[in-house]
Amino acid sequence: MSRPRAVLAMSPEAAEAVLDPVALAAFDQVCDLASDVVLADFDTATARAALAEAEILIIGWGCPPLTAEVLAMAPRLRAVVHTGGTVRGYVTQACWDRGIEVSSAAAANALPVAEYTLAMILLSGKKVLERAREYRASGEDPGRWLRTSRSLGNFGRTVGILSASLIGRRVIELLRPYDFRVLLHDPYVTDEEAWELGVEPVSLPELFARGDVVSVHTPLLPATRGLVSRELIDSMRPDAMLINTARGAVVDQEALAAAALAGRVRAVLDVTDPELLPKQHPLWHSENVLISPHLAGSQGNEWGRLAEHAAAEIALWSTGAGFAHPVQRERLDRLA
What we know:
Layout: E1 5-9, H1 12-18, H2 21-30, E2 32-39, H3 45-53, E3 56-59, H4 68-72, E4 79-82, H5 93-97, E5 101-104, H6 106-126, H7 128-138, E6 157-162, H8 166-175, E7 180-185, H9 191-197, E8 200-201, H10 204-210, E9 213-216, H11 230-234, E10 240-244, H12 253-261, E11 265-269, E12 289-291, H13 303-318
Parallel strand pairs: 1-2, 1-3, 3-4, 4-5, 6-7, 6-9, 7-8, 9-10, 10-11, 11-12
């Protein structure tokens, strides 16, 4: 198996997170890695020398855009392997025009997001956070569990999935062992494909009207900005839960805040718009809303999975078989 010349390109912060000794050793097994060079800026003599030799770019968060000018400095470049999810902002039209093959670790990054979503679905069914807060405040006898409402629990609940993206599909997969009814709305998935996934295809209004939980996994595109509208939020069942791990701007946050403060719905938000909500925003002041700091995706030891994924892609590509997880230009407009 040939060992292509590879160059790393990402921000110093991304390099510190992803490129630990284990990751570097994995890359060293499959390519001739210029391990002492991590490019965060392509406009230097070091960068120009490294790009001139590169056959593969291993990129990460903070990589500068791969413009036509950058590609002109990399005449031998044939492939780009991203150690993160979306390649938006990094891979430009010039890459596609040149026929450069592109791979992403989006599938690997989908797993922790799906795990987070599953955890929140299960916790929400038992109302764990709310009941723990009440228990701490009241100190009531825990024996009252025999008097809980039949609306509480995870048996036979209905979970709505908005978008069969990579993450949405992983959530569907993780939900299979549980006693849930799972609905799906995705305009790009046929009814037959939905049933093959083991879910019921429904319209967007039906997804929100029927779901005890609605989990948002649609990418932020011009057509999806504000997709989760006031009308949809107001149609949700009393005490339903909205989970958003996609992008904050997909949801009408003002409508969600009004519904949550009124006690009509609950929400778990790992993303908001803007990313850091102002402290005076009403979502911070609703006991029905949990806001986490965009932590659902890969963090900590989960970065190792991304590096392993990238190394496996390079190994496969080097055999001439192409990538197992290629990014296709024609699908990029509807990917996260």
